[in-house]
Specification:
globular, about 1000 residues, 7-stranded parallel sheet, about 10% helix, 7 helices, mainly beta, 8-stranded antiparallel sheet
Length: about 1000
Amino acid sequence: MLTRPFITLLCFATLSLSIPCFTKAAPIDSGRVKFSFNPGWKLYTGTDTVGAQLPAFNDSQWKNITLPHAFNEDDAFRVEIAKLTTGIGWYRKHFKIPAQFAQKKVFIEFEGARQAAEVYLNGKYIGLSENGVMAFGFDITNGLRFGDAENVIAVKVNNDYHYKEKATGSGFQWNQNTFYANYGGINKNVYIHIMDKLHQTLPLYSNLKTTGVYIYPSAMDIAAKQATINADAEVKNDYDVAKSLSYEVRIDDMNGKTVSTFNGGQYTLAPGEVKVLKANARVGNLSFWSWGYGYLYTVNTIIKVDGVVTDVVKTKTGFRKTEFANGTVYLNDRAIQMHGYGQRTTNEWPALGQSVPAWMSDLSNGLMVEGNANLIRWMHVTPWKQDVESCDRVGIITNMPAGDSEGDPKDGREWQQRVELMRDATIYNRNNPSIMFYESGNKGVKEEHMKDMKAVRDEFDPYGGRASGSREMLSSKIAEYGGEMLYVDKSARMPLWAMEYSRDEGVRLYWDEQTDPFHKEGDGPVRGKEAPAPYNHNQDAFAKEDVVRWYDYWRERPGTGKRVSSGGVNIIFSDSNTHFRGEENYRTSGEVDALRVAKDAFYAHQVMWDGWVDVANNHNFILGHWNYKPGIKKDVMVVSSGDKVQLFLNGKSLGFGEQSSHFLFTFKNIVWQPGTLKAISYDTKGHQLGSAEKKTAGEPVGIKLSLHTGPTGLKADGADIALVDVEVVDAQGNRCPTALNMVNFNLSGPAEWRGGLAHGRPDNYILSKALPVQAGINRIIIRSSTDAGHITLSAQADGLKPASISIDSKPFAVVDGLSSYIPGSEMTASLSRGPTPAGPSFTVTRIPVTITNATAGSNQAEAAKSFDDDDYTSWINDGVLANAWIKYTFDKPHPVSELTIKLNGWRSKKYPIRILIDGKIVYTGTTPQSLGYVTIPFPTTTGRSLTVQLTGANTDKDAYGLVEVNGHKDDDGTVGADPKGKSMLGINEIEIYQKP
């Protein structure tokens, strides 16, 4: 599961690591220096502390920590989101700034804090950040002591869910206890920037009112590998005299080779003046950033005075071309259907929260790409810069919100807070190529508000190739993309993709109904008004649900008509310490668990998603395991992108599976026998495409430990992490998939136990040194201390051979509280999928015929709304059966063979209908319920018109039982007026097709 750039070691007994000593990054070759300010902090939590901002305050008894560090990290996954510890946390740090920088400008940058942070330097208040999401910074030049004199910075952080903005008394809409897990304190990185008084600014708008550097391509020619690269740098002169300068740009590729250098001209800035300098040049032989191809360049924007370099900003960015049209997203001139995950922005881990080293961000986000996801919809608030940069490297498209909970706030301060957060986030992240969508709200916003958000994009990122839109917004004339929460929407205009489909839950522990602990489908407690059955699955049912739900979007993909679905994102990727519906006190909707151990649903998506639109590469996966007891019968399910699948047990054919939802093949009542279960897939012509197998593991005999660290090993910085997989294995080293053994751990050496997570206790075993494997595996977390040395972890379980594993944490250089190591600087980009493929990404499977008009048995004035390319409008008859028909006339006779239709109340209603071509009946039946569209095929018949006619009473019973977190039932899909009675027919949208 864990792939490059992570180090993975395996052992049964004791294994030693020999890793080269960590080398700190070289200083920037100009007057600008950036230091990590993460090491050497003190932390106090509890009641507010009088005088803690003063330099002489005695903090000797406070806890020593390295940032990022949430003061309530012990709560992560131990308690539900509403019970996370809130209150005041004080952070203090003693540091020195070398005398050589006494004539420079010094800034501090916080990547974020939750919720409100009051910052003091040497006892003096220097500023406040209150939104709890975004980066902020201050000019601290005048308050510093240089040389041997010590400085003290103190930060008071309040993470109260009810915190109010001091100036206005307004709360922040996103600061709530359902969606945005509250890991309080300084939970992200902090930096010190030292630069010349004539300098390029930082992209920190709220406090500094500066916008930094903006890099963007234009006039892109993908085939020729050319683009004009533009580099705009905001420069400020803080000297008390005018300064003349020259502006240059140098572009380096991933290997450090310079590919272009160009001149931006000569300028003179008056004292205090701020000016944006611009330069551009045509650059050839470019590698364009793409899905699974995180190719990044370093753009050096250079200031020279009298020919001497005085300031350089190194911006790591990528170049890609985007278009949002025809209901489709285009990346580098190629159509791509969105498939990925709606992931909580906290992206959290047990006993750590969101504060993890950069390599763990790459692990989590890279696993999505490994599972063939191409999009992350970060949910509710702007993601941490570390995660944005990680997505750049692994090559996954991202959707960036500002801040929201649910709903469009009224005009006034609450709305302005969201606009200001979007402004700051846009400026801060506009050079990150992974961001392709700016989200204005987790629910639809009114057109005036959409206009406000789009204006932010147009002012601060007009050339970044990013669409501005929101959830819902299907009919908006301003939004550039949309999509409902989980329903299937289609458009011939702007891309519509589902924002959080497949909302079920499934704990990784439960395989199926035949495997201990025997989780029957739907078992679990009632949560408020919610019955457990719709949500609380075992792994078999959870993965099956994911297959069924994705098919809803895939079958309406580009190439299937003029109106298409641009896909959707499954909610969520990793189990999350947010609201929940299943039996745990956290959400288990992830395709991997909270420790990023994969569930079967991960592999199901890997099969279905390996293509830009159509599936390009064949994969197969057998759901579940093959370790049962004699006499067990079960339905074996195979997820495959083939057209047929044959199952073999110990070489004997069990026949071909029943295909459903295109990707799912079911083999009924297979009698278990030990050995090898093998599935082989074929195309329509019978050519073998690929295979997958599951083998019966032997009896458990021992424990296997597998170590994962970042690419340079474990740094003794007090914040780096080692992950250790714990498996129960047979004599051949195979994982025993049904093992549930309790394992006891012992840790020695300079490291801190952070433990793992398991089910069965109210605290989920958080920080426990004894926890069970579940489905044969678990994973634990170890954090380094600030002392380098030899660390040993041993694991024991009754009846099993024990194991141990060792690692040497490497020395980490810190001088007077400053480190030249910049978090994430050792991480390299993944190019696993290669550049954007040439050629089309889909085959046209059907062609829509042109409808010129419609006539109806009633409500004629509304008839055109049933084919107006708007899922928010509909035609509905008057409730009289004789009038429950609508006739569509074509531009000319067409040999039509199917239609796709979104019926009013699509989730709850069934309609008995018949379809006629020029008066001839070609179909009679009852429409199925769905989460949007249904396709009805019929024999190819040439004609000039098609009529849909209700033939009897419709039925109205919800097929899905979806309930929101607040206990309210989800909308059933009714659009517009819905007359009472059983003799009504309602059509939101229809499209009629002929074969290509």
